[in-house]
UniProtKB/TrEMBL annotation:
<keyword id="KW-0813">Transport</keyword>
<feature type="domain" description="ABC transporter">
    <location>
        <begin position="2"/>
        <end position="220"/>
    </location>
</feature>
<keyword id="KW-0547">Nucleotide-binding</keyword>
<dbReference type="InterPro" id="IPR003593">
    <property type="entry name" value="AAA+_ATPase"/>
</dbReference>
<dbReference type="InterPro" id="IPR003439">
    <property type="entry name" value="ABC_transporter-like_ATP-bd"/>
</dbReference>
<dbReference type="InterPro" id="IPR017911">
    <property type="entry name" value="MacB-like_ATP-bd"/>
</dbReference>
<dbReference type="InterPro" id="IPR027417">
    <property type="entry name" value="P-loop_NTPase"/>
</dbReference>
<dbReference type="GO" id="GO:0005524">
    <property type="term" value="F:ATP binding"/>
</dbReference>
<keyword id="KW-1278">Translocase</keyword>
<comment type="similarity">
    <text>Belongs to the ABC transporter superfamily.</text>
</comment>
<dbReference type="InterPro" id="IPR017871">
    <property type="entry name" value="ABC_transporter-like_CS"/>
</dbReference>
<dbReference type="Pfam" id="PF00005">
    <property type="entry name" value="ABC_tran"/>
</dbReference>
<keyword id="KW-0067">ATP-binding</keyword>
<protein>
    <submittedName>
        <fullName>ABC transporter ATP-binding protein</fullName>
    </submittedName>
</protein>
């Protein structure tokens, strides 16, 4: 599902990723832990094609069989919208749109028919226990509900892989526990691959594999 070889990243003279190699199978839930500043977010952004590694010629990045290093900006934007889902610490829902509309947006960008997008979004929101919240705007939802809407949005195009950066970092422990269980339910139901950067030990340890990053390298 993901094959990354020799991923390097420099900011000026500072090397924040030092030749990272990573191989992730379809349906795996991977957690990435490590001290602040280790390079976890940078790695996730590069794997998710939101950022690019330094010196692409020396590295390889395959996502779902696609050599994303070699795509044009335009093709990459399309690939990202259609095949990758993102969940961030802060949900980044659009405040003026309802839950249902927020979930539909990536499907509209993909070109999915409105009725099909709404059907899919409604089904996902129901699976996430939010059938009674379709017409609510983000500020009318609890933190846990907002984050579940963000999860539905990440899933609406049936992405091959979901990248999550501190997805429960802003939630109380009960909402966090519910969100963590959800990732595994989704993997079991839809076969999704998850790559999750987290400081939450429980979530990190629930993963199929826990990777530790220290000073720009995966140490185990
Ligand atoms: P982590 O997610 O493990 O906390 P990050 O990937 O956020 O680590 O950051 C790794 C290192 O890269 C840190 O030293 C950080 O200060 C530096 N860094 C991150 N983004 C930038 C940037 N845009 N410009 C310069 N340095 C950056
Ligand atoms: P969750 O476990 O999903 O985070 P909570 O226990 O925090 O849910 O909230 C329960 C209910 O309280 C929610 O369904 C929501 O309607 C309401 N609620 C909680 N926080 C807020 C808020 N900040 N604004 C509006 N309603 C809220």
């Amino acid at each position: 599902m993901i094959k990354a070889t020799n991923i390097n990243k420099f900011y000026g003279n500072l090397q924040v990723l030092k030749g990272v190699d990573l191989h992730i199978e379809k349906g795996e839930v991977i957690s990435i832990v490590g001290p602040s500043g280790a390079g976890k977010t940078t790695l996730l952004q590069i794997l998710g094609t939101l950022d690019v590694q330094s010196d692409k010629s020396e590295s390889e990045l395959l996502i779902n069989g696609e050599a994303v290093n070699k795509l044009s900006e335009r093709a990459l934007a399309k690939f990202r919208n259609n095949h990758i889902g993102f969940i961030f610490q802060f949900h980044q829902l659009l405040p003026e749109f309802t839950a249902l509309e927020n979930v539909c947006i990536p499907a509209f960008i993909k070109g999915t028919k409105k009725s099909d997008a709404e059907e899919k979004a409604t089904e996902l929101l129901a699976f996430l226990g939010l059938s009674h919240r379709l017409q609510h705007k983000p500020n009318e939802l609890s933190g846990g509900e907002q984050q579940r809407v963000a999860v539905a949005r990440a899933l609406v195009n049936d992405p091959a892989v979901i990248f999550a950066d501190e997805p429960s970092g802003n939630l109380d422990s009960e909402s966090a526990d519910n969100l963590h269980k959800l990732f595994f339910d989704l993997r079991d139901k839809f076969g999704q691959t998850f790559v999750i950067v987290t400081h939450n030990e429980e979530l990190a340890n629930m993963a199929d594999r826990k990777l530790t990053m220290v000073d720009g390298s995966i140490t185990k």
